[in-house]
Write a sequence for this structure.
């Protein structure tokens, strides 16, 4: 009984934003969903060794998008960005793993696909910055904010990945 209590206690208090428990928010934008790239994007993150802890197909509201892109509100393209993101469903995901924020950003490529290397998601699938397929958090702090905007706590899963011993030293 004590062993079960200690296991449960350590499970509840496990660190949520450091080491292998670091989380990031990734969203396949409407153009990526329409082009049927969701499976390929999920495959890349799984093959890298990251753990999927949240996933949903959703039609984002204007209020959610305005909050998500709050820091871009003064940019001339803000209205077009909101319209574009409302134009179709978005696949919102939360991925977990060691340095997942930094690594995911490298996997995505540069915001402008013309600056993205082949082998990155944007380098392989994008031509124009206004249709760049995917969003990824740019810091742990923004990941925390974005995850809380797009997911309720009960929508995120804590589960043991049996491959961890094969991915982490």
């Amino acid at each position: 009984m004590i062993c079960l209590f200690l296991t449960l206690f350590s499970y509840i208090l496990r660190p949520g934003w450091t080491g292998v428990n670091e989380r990031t928010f990734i969203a396949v934008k409407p153009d990526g969903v329409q082009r049927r790239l969701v499976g390929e994007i999920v495959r890349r993150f799984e093959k890298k060794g990251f753990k999927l802890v949240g996933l949903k197909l959703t039609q984002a509201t204007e209020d959610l998008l305005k909050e998500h892109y709050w820091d871009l509100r003064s940019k001339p393209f803000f209205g077009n960005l909101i319209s574009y993101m409302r134009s179709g469903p978005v696949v919102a995901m939360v991925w977990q793993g060691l340095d997942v924020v930094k690594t995911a950003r490298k996997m995505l490529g540069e915001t402008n696909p013309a600056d993205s290397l082949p082998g990155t998601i944007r380098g392989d699938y994008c031509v124009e910055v206004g249709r760049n397929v995917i969003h990824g958090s740019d810091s742990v702090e923004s990941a925390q904010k974005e995850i809380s905007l797009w997911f309720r706590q009960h929508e995120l899963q804590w589960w043991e990945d049996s491959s961890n011993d094969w991915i982490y030293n």
Observations:
- Residues 3-15 have pLDDT under 50 and may be disordered.
